[in-house]
Amino acid sequence: MAILRTSEQRFENLSGYDFEPHYLEINDPDLGALRMHYLDEGPRNGQILLCMHGEPSWCYLYRKMIPSLVEAGFRVLAPDLVGFGRSDKPADTDDYTFAKHVNWMTDWVTQLDIQGATLVAQDWGGLIGLRLVAAMPQRFERVTIANTGLPTGDQGASDAFIAWRDFSLNDEAFDIGMILNNFGSGSLSEDDQNAYRAPFPDDSYKAGARKFPSLVPSSTDDPARDDNIAAWEVLKTWEKPFLCCFSDNDPITGGGDKVFHKLVPGCAGQPHATLHGGHFIQQEDGERWSAIIIDWIKSA
Q1: Is 279 among the catalytic positions?
Q2: Going from the N-terminus, what domains does the chain have, and what CATH number goes with each?
Q3: How many CB atoms lie within 10 A of CB 77?
Q4: Cα separation of 256 and 259, whole Å?
């Protein structure tokens, strides 16, 4: 059971990223100790914003949002999921399951004793983050999400998603920088593309990134279905503020906010907004999402 750890040298001098790394060791009953990396910016006594990235990015995705959030007085915690960024990377795709990702993050949240947090999440950050909210609602005061969901497998999978899942498993290069660029406006600089590539020196480090699309429930016999249904039952009773900020040009999750508006009571009366860009909205309109979050919380 190989556990890979990306060299620190690969994270030096990244464009727009000069944050101090922090590490916490979590335990997996099958793999043993795993080191998770996270950013911890802002005042220790500030309200916590838990910023969770998705597939196949890492906390670098939040680099444009963190400065203004910190300036507004918030404490920003931005972890790298296991398999991504500076966090440890099990080398076998079989080591990654939806349940394991939730368990790893649950251990991290519990060890840090996060309280009174606002979840800020996109893509798989939302799938995992919403499970955390449902399992530990007492630790969260608000939720804001973009371009994500919590599927149960009832809707099946689109042809486009099936193609993406097959590509992630089988494409020889699986170029992370190119993927981030192509799922946006195509304007990502080469420096930024290289920063997204930094955690993955070669393909052996990409097991978690390659596996993630296969973990999205796309049928009613998916092993995560029952847990996601249970999480939805909690979210259907969630009356704390719940803000949707989906983007206007995401081919993957377009219209996905409607189910939250319909089912989550906390969505009522919130200043929901449409951001401008593709799937990785923190990259293309992150500053605006930050401004919306600041106004939303400060005006409560």
Answers
A1: yes
A2: 3-298 (3.40.50.1820)
A3: 23
A4: 6
